Amino acid sequence: MFRYKEDKWPVAIILAFSILDFAAFFLLQNIWLLAFYPLVLFIVKINISAWNHHHQHTPTFRSNALNRVLEFFYALHTGVTTNMWCLHHNIGHHVNFLDQSKDESGWKRKDGSTMGHLEYSFNIFSTAHYRAFKVGKRFPKIQKNYLIFTFLTFLIVGLLTWYKPMQGLFIFIIPMILSLFFTCWVTYGHHAGLDTSNEFEGSYNNEGKWFNVFTGNLGYHTAHHHKPGAHWSKLPALHETIKDKIPEKCYVNILIDGVPAVNPV
């Protein structure tokens, strides 16, 4: 069922939070508890975006049907639907990250200057689905699934919110928005300020143990860009084979992903 056994525990934990969400949806009635709910789980849920990212690079299950079901629950946590990152990130950003005139997650303004952190985050957040759709014009089969399952996801969220408005807002809609925005926020720290044509100098890396435990080794970002199809569990070993090519300036050591201030807002 699983393509890699290492995915069993992350998927079990993430689905457990999905069960918790639906339990809260049906059981919580107090408006203050509902408002408090996304705040309490925010730190946990923002890390789910990293696992959704990994899944859209290397599908978790051998069964397409199971992958679509998992992607629905990922979307409820992250706001990122089936094939959205495949288009925006895999086919878009990974191909173009060294060319800021094309990069779907570009950190440069049109005049060549570096965006501020907040400016970048709002820019990528507000255009994320549009950019995925635009890339999809060149890949109609992938785009078709993106459109179908995005529509179904938003339809279900809409029906849940119609049935229980406050529960739908605080348990699903707000966390989806916050998670997508925070994903864009931390993505700034992957590349911003690294203006180069050398793939080994174009990403920041974080070797911190707990950062990589929570994000599925996303700190080994140069390795990830070197072989985007490599499963997350293989990235530390891959990093060891290329670390002599990565300059010291491309390492950071903080728990929350980021880089030293680059044109801060």
UniProtKB/TrEMBL annotation:
Keyword Membrane found: yes
Segments crossing the lipid bilayer: 9-28, 34-52, 146-163, 169-188
InterPro entries per the UniProt record, alphabetical: FA_desaturase_dom
The organism's taxonomic lineage, starting at the top: Bacteria, Pseudomonadati, Pseudomonadota, Gammaproteobacteria, sulfur-oxidizing symbionts
Annotated ranges, domain Fatty acid desaturase: 32-249
Keyword Amino-acid biosynthesis found: no
One annotated GO biological process: lipid metabolic process
Domain of life, source organism: Bacteria
Organism of this sequence: endosymbiont of Galathealinum brachiosum
Entry keyword set: Membrane, Transmembrane, Transmembrane helix
Protein name (Swiss-Prot/TrEMBL): Fatty acid desaturase
